[in-house]
């Protein structure tokens, strides 16, 4: 996504980290363009935090190099890198007040008069009246903003954020997401943000890299990742996907496949590279892209749409929408989200229905993958 | 999970040489440990070796001592001083038991019933430490004085009849009897019992009591089935912290007891500092160490608590 | 048994134990105002504040006290420095022989004092060392060390390692990180260890008695006086130490309480 490497890019080349026989991060190339808001998204243990720590210098890479602009910083210790971090649970110095926490970096670099800069920072994060408080006297949201101010005051080339909102409750998270986005736009510094929350990543970042088991699965703009996932992990981890196993019958501008006796179409450019007639394919569709019609109204469905039949197994009412689980010959437990605009009273469990959607919204995935990869499980609900 | 061989994701991932942590950094912990560990090796571990060697030496002060691997010293020491060993185990064991019986209610009181008085009570438990323990032990000479109020009360309550029959007191005297020594030992090491008990009781979530009561346990059953088992780590470390120093003590026996109440500590001290029979003293000291180690090991096995520090 | 007593049985038992624990201190205080007839201060005769007016009136007592304070100060310094270093190594680094080091720390705390005292004396006799101030100091540093390690270790273990990472991230080099972040945060643990070392050293009798030669510390002075005759001044010193310590605790509590309130008002 970066065609012209400018001076402020973060470039990782062939970077990896192994602990004994365990590989936390596989050799990885990554370029974060200057001034962008970049998110590393993945479940815990996927290597995203290790990657971040290698940029900060807190972890020595086993192989590879870290470049800030054109400068190789791989061998620089953290205190010599123009990079600052907002730590998970903030790591505010408990023995220093807010003012001194924020001034810490400036003082270490020998800046004499820090007062004006600290005050400006406190204004930026709207904590002007808390300068003389100790961290433990602040709320979670306030601590979070002190942590951001403490890092930003140093005008780093890159700001690293390690699960910065993980300790906050849901409402505060939403507010702080917007707040962080505002600050980033205001200061224009490159942000690299590590999170396991896919909504958070999509809300805030220009570019998201989805990591799994020490590798980057896919990287791109949030909408691009969501609409056109390349792996089952991305399809399941980023929102919910219906993945239908199908057999390819025809490959042209469109790929035609059959599943459960029905025919499904999708554009060839939304399929993985090797698709051939007679091969297998996972046909994917997001639940909210599907329209649900009662079997009696099946004739009214416009032609040219993908369709598959089934029976409603379960419904749950969410308020803005209703979620249906549909069993059919193409698959069981297919998810459909319908806006609650004009609810059809016949759509109750047991009702025969037809699911239909625009072929252009369909995506194809390599059938050799684990269909369940990245899906939430009962034990490790993410 | 373990291989990095398949698919370097993008071009340019040709792996450069693997980095190694600098040797200087790896040496840091050893430099930090060196002075302290050396100190303990030279002034704690090495003396043990010297003592072991002394215990198998023979000779005299005038001609000097030489290692002759004279193991009979151990048998002679046991033969001559087994009554003192027995008394040591009896006094230290009884004192430990008394500490537990006296200390548990106070620890329980501080942990669960004291409310805002908790800190005051804790200070009261620790504060006596600030007066030298020898001065406080001497105070028991006054408290237990013949014909004093305490002895009179014990006599009136017929306690002295019972202890007299056990051989712990003589007539209407308490001072210079085993009871006085046990009383002094109990007093001196009581805080070592109370503090670990308090720490483990204080950690117990109050809701566990409520849950037990909710599940039909009477107060007594709640204590037996919930509180006591959860405080076992405190009981174990408290009894050890009491028994080990009590078994080596000679101050209480010397100040509050008589020649009949000598413990093994008194013998070791006398042999080392007055008789100057170093081999016997070293052998006794080793035997004491062995007895304590064996008792403690058996006890820990029985109590089944591994994490003591 | 009335209900009220049954419900508060544990409170009564606990308070009785408390009386048992504090009674000797009361006796020491009361008898510091006694004027005994003979050489021993065990039975009450007449009220007198003479001993309080002249605490150093007994030969050698204040000299012994001074020696004990001096010893305790140096032993505390030595044990705190060495113990803190060990504690940091144990918590912050992975290295070989960790189990052996842990055992070496644990053993002195689980050994009857008389055994350590006797074996250390054996060493000094074998080396031909002259017993006195230095041998006692060596011994005190040895047995205080383990307690400092335990106290500091507890604090450093509870410390978030990210705080130091944050400092390094904010341009503090290794030395700066240690001085500006690690040390201030570990300070309460180090202070607790030092206080404990001071108390242990000041009040030690057994190990000191074996290794002091002709030097006389305050506990040794008390021990000797139990044979020769106990001057009232011993009780004065004991009570004064108690009072100073309790006052220091109360003052500390009040200070923290006030600071907390001030912070809340801020």
UniProtKB/TrEMBL annotation, chain A:
Any one GO MF annotation of this record: ATP binding
Catalytic activity, as annotated: ATP + H2O + polyamine-[polyamine-binding protein]Side 1 = ADP + phosphate + polyamineSide 2 + [polyamine-binding protein]Side 1
ABC transporter domain sequence ranges: 10-238
InterPro entries membership: AAA+_ATPase, ABC_SmlMolc_Importer, ABC_transporter-like_ATP-bd, ABC_transporter-like_CS, Mo/tungstate-bd_C_term_dom, P-loop_NTPase, PotA-like, Transp-assoc_OB_typ2
Enzyme class, spelled out: translocase
Domain of life, per lineage: Bacteria
GO cellular component: ATP-binding cassette (ABC) transporter complex
Keyword set, alphabetical order: ATP-binding, Cell membrane, Membrane, Nucleotide-binding, Translocase, Transport
Xref: Gene3D superfamilies: 2.40.50.100, P-loop containing nucleotide triphosphate hydrolases (3.40.50.300)
EC number(s) given by UniProt: 7.6.2.11
A Pfam match: TOBE_2
Alphabetical list of PANTHER family matching this protein: SPERMIDINE/PUTRESCINE IMPORT ATP-BINDING PROTEIN POTA (PTHR42781), SPERMIDINE_PUTRESCINE IMPORT ATP-BINDING PROTEIN POTA (PTHR42781:SF4)
Role this protein plays: Part of the ABC transporter complex PotABCD involved in spermidine/putrescine import. Responsible for energy coupling to the transport system.
Subunit: The complex is composed of two ATP-binding proteins (PotA), two transmembrane proteins (PotB and PotC) and a solute-binding protein (PotD).
Recorded family membership: Belongs to the ABC transporter superfamily. Spermidine/putrescine importer (TC 3.A.1.11.1) family.
Protein name: Spermidine/putrescine import ATP-binding protein PotA
Organism for this UniProt entry: Streptomyces roseolilacinus
Automatic annotation (TrEMBL), chain C:
A cellular-component GO term for this protein: plasma membrane
Keywords: Cell membrane, Membrane, Transmembrane, Transmembrane helix, Transport
Biological process terms in GO annotation: transmembrane transport
Boundaries of every ABC transmembrane type-1 domain copy: 65-255
PROSITE patterns membership: ABC_TM1
PANTHER family, per database record: PUTRESCINE TRANSPORT SYSTEM PERMEASE PROTEIN POTI
Pfam families assigned to the protein according to its UniProt record, in alphabetical order: BPD_transp_1
Membrane topology, as annotated: Multi-pass membrane protein
Principal location class: membrane
Organism lineage: Bacteria, Bacillati, Actinomycetota, Actinomycetes, Kitasatosporales
Coiled coil: none
Compartment(s): Cell membrane
Organism annotation: Streptomyces roseolilacinus
Source superkingdom: Bacteria
InterPro entries xref list: Bact_Polyamine_Transport, MetI-like, MetI-like_sf
Assigned protein family: Belongs to the binding-protein-dependent transport system permease family. CysTW subfamily.
Protein name: ABC transporter permease
Transmembrane helix is among the record's keywords: yes
Cell membrane is among the record's keywords: yes
Transmembrane parts of this sequence: 9-33, 71-91, 103-125, 131-152, 178-200, 232-255
């Amino acid at each position: 996504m970066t065609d012209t490497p400018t001076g402020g890019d973060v470039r990782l080349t062939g970077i990896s980290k192994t602990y004994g026989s365990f590989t936390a991060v596989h050799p990885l190339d990554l370029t974060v363009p200057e001034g962008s808001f970049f998110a590393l998204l993945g479940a815990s243990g996927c290597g995203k935090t290790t990657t971040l720590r290698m940029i900060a210098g807190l972890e020595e890479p086993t192989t590879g190099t870290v470049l800030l602009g054109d400068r190789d910083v791989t061998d620089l210790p953290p205190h010599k890198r123009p990079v600052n971090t907002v730590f998970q649970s903030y790591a505010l110095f408990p023995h220093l007040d807010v003012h001194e926490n924020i001034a810490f970096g400036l003082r270490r670099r020998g800046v004499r008069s820090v007062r004006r800069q600290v005050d400006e920072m406190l204004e930026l994060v709207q904590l002007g009246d808390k300068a003389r408080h100790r961290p433990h006297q602040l709320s979670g949201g306030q601590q979070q903003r002190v942590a951001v101010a403490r890092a930003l005051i140093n005008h780093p080339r890159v700001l690293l954020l390690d699960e910065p909102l993980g300790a906050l409750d849901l409402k505060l998270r939403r507010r702080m997401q917007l707040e962080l986005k505002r600050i980033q736009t205001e200061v224009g510094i490159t942000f690299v943000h590590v999170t396991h929350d896919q909504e958070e990543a999509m809300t805030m970042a220009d570019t998201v890299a989805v990591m799994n088991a020490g590798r980057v699965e896919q990287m791109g703009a949030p909408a691009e990742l969501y609409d056109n996932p390349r792996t089952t992990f991305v399809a399941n981890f980023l929102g919910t996907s219906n993945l239908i196993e199908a057999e390819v019958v025809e490959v042209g501008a469109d790929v035609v496949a059959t599943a459960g006796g029905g025919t499904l179409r999708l554009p060839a450019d939304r399929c993985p590279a090797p698709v051939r007639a007679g091969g297998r394919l996972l046909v994917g569709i997001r639940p909210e892209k599907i329209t649900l019609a009662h079997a009696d109204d099946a004739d009214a469905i416009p032609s040219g749409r993908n369709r598959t039949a089934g029976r409603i197994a379960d419904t749950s009412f969410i308020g803005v929408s209703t979620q249906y689980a549909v069993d059919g010959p193409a698959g069981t437990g297919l998810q459909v989200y319908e806006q609650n605009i004009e609810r059809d009273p016949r759509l109750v469990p047991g009702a025969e229905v037809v699911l239909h959607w625009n072929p252009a919204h369909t995506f194809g995935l390599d059938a050799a993958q684990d269909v369940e990869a990245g899906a939430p499980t009962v034990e490790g609900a993410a | 999970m373990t291989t990095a061989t398949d698919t370097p994701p993008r071009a340019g991932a040709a792996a450069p040489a693997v980095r190694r942590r600098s040797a200087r950094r790896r040496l840091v912990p050893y430099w930090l440990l060196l002075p302290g560990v050396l100190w303990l090796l030279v002034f704690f571990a090495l003396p043990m070796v010297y003592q072991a060697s002394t215990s198998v030496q023979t000779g005299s002060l005038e001609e000097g001592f030489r290692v002759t691997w004279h193991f009979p010293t151990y048998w002679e020491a046991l033969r001559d001083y087994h009554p003192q060993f027995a008394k040591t185990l009896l006094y230290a064991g009884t004192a430990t038991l008394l500490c537990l019986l006296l200390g548990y209610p106070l620890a329980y009181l501080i942990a669960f019933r004291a409310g805002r008085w908790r800190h005051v009570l804790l200070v009261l438990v620790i504060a006596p430490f600030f007066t030298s323990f020898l001065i406080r032990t001497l105070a028991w000479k006054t408290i237990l004085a013949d014909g004093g109020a305490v002895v009179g009360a014990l006599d009136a309550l017929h306690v002295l009849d019972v202890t007299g029959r056990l051989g712990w007191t003589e007539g209407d005297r308490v001072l210079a009897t085993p009871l006085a020594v046990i009383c002094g030992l109990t007093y001196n090491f009581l805080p070592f019992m109370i503090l670990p008990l308090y720490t483990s009781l204080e950690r117990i979530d109050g809701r566990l009591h409520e849950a037990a009561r909710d599940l039909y346990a009477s107060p007594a059953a709640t204590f037996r089935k919930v509180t006591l088992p959860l405080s076992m780590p405190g009981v174990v470390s408290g009894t050890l912290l009491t028994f080990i120093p009590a078994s080596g003590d000679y101050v209480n026996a010397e100040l509050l007891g008589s020649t009949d109440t000598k413990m093994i500590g008194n013998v070791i001290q006398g042999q080392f500092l007055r008789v100057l029979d170093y081999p016997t003293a070293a052998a006794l000291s080793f035997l004491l160490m062995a007895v304590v180690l064996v008792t403690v090991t058996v006890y820990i096995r029985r109590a089944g608590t591994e994490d003591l520090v | 048994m009335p209900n009220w007593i049954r419900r508060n049985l544990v409170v009564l038992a606990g308070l009785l134990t408390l009386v048992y624990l504090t009674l000797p201190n009361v006796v020491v205080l009361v008898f510091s105002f006694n004027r005994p007839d003979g050489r021993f201060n065990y039975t009450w005769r007449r009220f007198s504040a003479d001993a309080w007016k002249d605490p150093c009136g007994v030969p050698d007592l204040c000299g012994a006290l001074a020696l004990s304070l001096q010893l305790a100060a140096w032993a505390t310094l030595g044990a705190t420095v060495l113990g803190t270093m060990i504690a940091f190594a144990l918590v912050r680094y992975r290295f070989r022989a960790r189990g052996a080091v842990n055992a070496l720390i644990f053993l002195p705390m689980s050994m009857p004092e008389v055994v350590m005292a006797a074996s250390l004396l054996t060493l000094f006799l074998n080396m031909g060392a002259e017993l006195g101030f230095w041998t006692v100091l060596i011994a005190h540093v040895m047995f205080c060390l383990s307690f400092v390690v335990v106290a500091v270790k507890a604090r450093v273990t509870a410390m978030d390692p990210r705080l130091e990472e944050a400092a390094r991230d904010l341009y503090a080099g290794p030395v700066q990180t240690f001085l500006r972040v690690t040390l201030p945060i570990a300070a309460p643990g180090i202070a607790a260890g030092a206080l404990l070392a001071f108390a242990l050293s000041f009040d030690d009798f057994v190990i000191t008695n074996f290794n002091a030669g002709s030097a006389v510390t305050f506990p040794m002075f008390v021990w000797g006086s139990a044979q020769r005759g106990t001057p009232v001044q011993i009780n004065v010193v004991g009570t004064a130490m108690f009072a100073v310590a309790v006052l220091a605790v109360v003052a500390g509590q009040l200070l923290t309480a006030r600071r907390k309130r001030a912070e809340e008002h801020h």
